[in-house]
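--- STAGE predict ---
source: upstream dedup step, 1 unique chain passed
mode: sequence only
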Amino acid sequence: MAVQHKRGRYGRGYLIVALRLRGTAQPIDAITSGPARSALDAIIGAPDTSVTCEDGWLKATWEPRGLTLFPGAFHRSRWATTLESLSTIADELERTGAA
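--- STAGE serialize ---
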């Protein structure tokens, strides 16, 4: 996990939650259906959140825009859901990449 606090008046802060993938993994674009697609849609559907897969890491990045206190209050359920979704996506990427 990485947190970058705002730097300066107009800087933006962000939070990254990442999972290390084992072995070879398919690109994230390969997920088109099933539970992994639903998990990916859930993360992407969250406000100001994106998902990337690079250098063996699956990353969810939250970068709020506008008038948002960063990082604000911690919402256990939101981040537990995000981690569960990342785990589902990682399992699928590893499974299809190993085939």
